[in-house]
Specification:
By secondary structure, the protein is of the alpha+beta class. The protein has a single domain, classed as Nuclear Transport Factor 2, Chain: A, CATH 3.10.450. The chain is built from four helices and five strands, in the order ααβαββββα. Strands 1-5-4-3-2 form a five-stranded mixed sheet. The radius of gyration is 17 Å and the shape is globular.
């Protein structure tokens, strides 16, 4: 999973070489992609079919992937800089006592990548991730 996300971010970064930043979808398209993913999650579907959309949508949310049921959502606000659209969303999940505000970062043109803030930050800080244990070989 980490290598896939890293490859996506590298592709986006390299796609923008020669420009100050990578290409960015319109605010309308970014919101549409976010809502498309949230609706699929709420309906109990997988994120995989979103990659068949035009433009393709790659949606990354650790709670969705873990099987958490989305009951409802409300897109509160959005902002953009030269690299990402950022949306604040109130999520209501079946295991929560009430709505929780989270942020989604939307970047790219095709595919459009939608990352929950925690997944986005985890991807950017992969160098600081804990090292995996190396398998112990037999001693002779």
């Amino acid at each position: 999973m980490r290598s896939r996300i890293a490859a996506i971010l590298i592709t986006i970064t390299l796609g923008g070489c020669g420009n100050p930043s990578a290409p960015l979808s319109s605010a309308e398209q970014a919101r549409k992609s976010l809502e498309l993913g949230l609706e699929a999650w709420k309906a109990g579907r997988s994120a995989a079919p979103l990659r068949e959309e035009k433009p393709a949508v790659d949606f990354v949310d650790y709670q969705w992937k873990a099987g958490t049921k989305l009951v409802g959502y409300l897109v509160d606000s959005d902002s953009a800089d030269s690299e990402t659209h950022t949306f604040t969303v109130e999520l209501t999940t079946a295991d929560a006592k009430g709505p929780r505000k989270v942020q989604y970062m939307v970047l790219g043109l095709d595919p459009i990548h939608v990352f929950r803030d925690e997944d986005y930050n985890r991807t950017l800080n992969m160098d600081n991730a804990p090292a995996t244990a190396k398998p112990q070989g037999k001693r002779r």
